[in-house]
Predict the 3D structure of the following.
Amino acid sequence: MSDRGVEVWSGGVNTWECDEMGHMNVRFWVAKAQEALAGLAAALGMPRAFAENGEATLVLREQHIRFLREAHAGGALHATGGVVELGESDARLLLVLRHPDETPAATFQLKVEHATRGDMRPFPWPERIRARAAALRVEVPAYAAARSLDLSPVAPSASLPRALDLGLKRIGLGVVGPAECDVFGRMRPEVFIGRVSDGAGRLFGQVRPGPDLAPGEPAPRIGGAVLEYRVLHLDWPRAGDGVELRSGFIGCDARTRRVAHWMLDPHSGRPWASAEAVAVSFDLDRRKVIDISEAALEDYRALCIPGLAL
């Protein structure tokens, strides 16, 4: 086995996919990974897994994402994929988005279920897919393994009443639009992480913290970035369903801030998705992660919420 698998997607980065940080926004990383997932499904013998009239689909239940190297407007990307584990009706898959020189740009470990397209009812993999999966086996390389997050099984705790009890900050509120849904009428996975990105300014503030400066030293231009995500997809809203994002800080050190994001139904209070992220301050000119000052670190420590998790 290797960490490579087969090529399942190829494309590039558009100018309008890049954000104020000067690199491709997280929502488009996830969108391209979803297209790569369709390519891997085809390699497994499910070429119409994400077509409206397909016989079966792959339902995304969990994502682990690591961002390793930025992608900029005009750059080319391609993706390789393979099967890490195959259960009775579920699987753990690996996708690696790569730069043209094969350098890994981002990695995705995806937990999926083989399910009916209508009611998302899991059912066993057929033998023909098991045979193809055996030929597509890959190992998770060190660069794609969890670094700062625990991927152990977890019982989700997200709900609107709990968010209110914990004092989580509202960073997003709205409804899912028709253009944000897939052919099955369910919200696309990149919408959750995209709305988290949209609300980050309300959580972190418009000015990101930077390092301690020597007298007379010019202040660098500071932005923010996420290095790692664990995302649980708990239910799938449809067009017109309400969504509310509540977020809070789990922990911090001089280099990283660990954050929880919950997407909730503002009417019933039930969870749509939850995530834990590792965020950093980012020097926009040097394109490097930087430490923050001790004063800023103390401010973040005061904001951390005991017991907050996925």
